TrEMBL record:
Transmembrane segments: none
Region (Disordered) location: 79-98
GO terms of molecular function: ATP binding
Gene3D superfamilies according to UniProt: Ribonuclease Inhibitor
Organism: Discostella pseudostelligera
Keywords: ATP-binding, Leucine-rich repeat, Nucleotide-binding, Repeat
Entry annotated with the keyword Nucleotide-binding: yes
Superkingdom of origin organism: Eukaryota
SUPFAM superfamilies: L domain-like
Protein name as catalogued: L domain-like protein
Entries under InterPro entries matching the protein: LRR_dom_sf, Plant_LRR-RLKs
Amino acid sequence: MMPHSTTAAARHNRISGRIGMNNLAAMTSSFSTLILLLLLLASNDIALASSASSSSDELLDAKAIDMARRIIQQVKDYSNNNNVEQHPSSPSPPSSSSWKMILRVLEKSFLGDEAEVEEDDNDNNYSSSTNEANARIKALQWLTLDYEKSSSSSTSRHHHKVPEYYESGLLDRYALATIYYATNGEDWIYDTNDDDTPFLSPTSHLQWAGVNGNNHDGHVSMLDLSHRNLVSSTFLPLEIVLLSPTLELLWLSDNTGLSGSLPYYIGDFTSLSSLSIYQTSMSGTLPESLYNLPKLSSLRIYKSNFTGGISSNIGKLSGALRWLWIHENQFTGRLPEEMGSLSKLEGMTLHGNLFDVVHDVRNDGSVGDADGGDDEVKSNIIPWSVCTNLMSGGELKHLWTDCEEDALLLDDEEEGESKLNASVKACSCCTRCFPRKTRTTKNENERISLSFADDMASDVSVN
């Protein structure tokens, strides 16, 4: 009996074991199926989220394109002279060249194949850098989101609306945002003592640091980005043209990271009265269009790397120009006689350049030949017409130039250094003279000193 009972029990245990194993396998299979199902659901959720995100991105792109079309339409209206109400302060009809050029650039950048772009010969004079093209896209994306936020936070009784500065000041706001992105705006420096409002803040762009203008229409009249740490190899982006109808002051000084050349379309800024881009790394020649600015009263471009000559067309600025500070560049050539027609000029600084000799002045005041070899003849880079303006009691009160080369450098044997010799007249009519850095021998300096010791020294103040 015992063996039989044992066999039955063992059989029962084996059957129970099989059932347990089968149940465990079934449970494990069910659990695995559940896990797999959960993973599939999670994966599906992720896919749905990704799909929703993609849809959101596509929607944002669509909104950005709509914003681009709004910008392009306003540029079209303006370039077609249909903007009398939009820019009432514009002194004259807009220049078709620069506005049509930026229209073509914006259409190519934002609409691509949809754009109906007419090619123009002026396009050969301009091409966007990669940095500028990227800045253009970033500015549009920012403006689109900013517009959406503004419309949702600003409400009226019956409907949502955006602030007034968005309506007529849309081009100005977009232009400022593009300038920000194109000049490394993320690393700009602000004056914390003045409670500066940073660029791209959710306020009117006229409240941003260095920006001022008409609060009624949102148009910018002043842009001061001095001491801001601007970085660009191509000056400012083409979008600066969008500010040209009303911009009166453009200051970009003390930005050594700002390079490139002054663009030819600067001549379209017909409202501009003050242009300051001194102490930068800008270079190149001055465009002829610069001399077409009817209201330009102050031009400060000193301590930079500008080259070339000063055009005779500078005489066109006679109606407004009061301050011309171009010292410490690399200008060459002869200064034109037309500078004497700048009747309203109060101050001019020319030293630290490489200008040629314009005329010589003898002791009796007559003009001589610079190459005549007469020891009684003094060379001068200043046109005689400018000296006449200064000495005839005109507006010119400050004329700073280079001295004749080494004329005032006399070695002091006791102190071992060069000193100014006040008895030597620096130039025929300047009010302040800056000795050039080159040196000659002590004997040569003494010879120059003796030659000009009696040369109308009382007419000039030497500092």
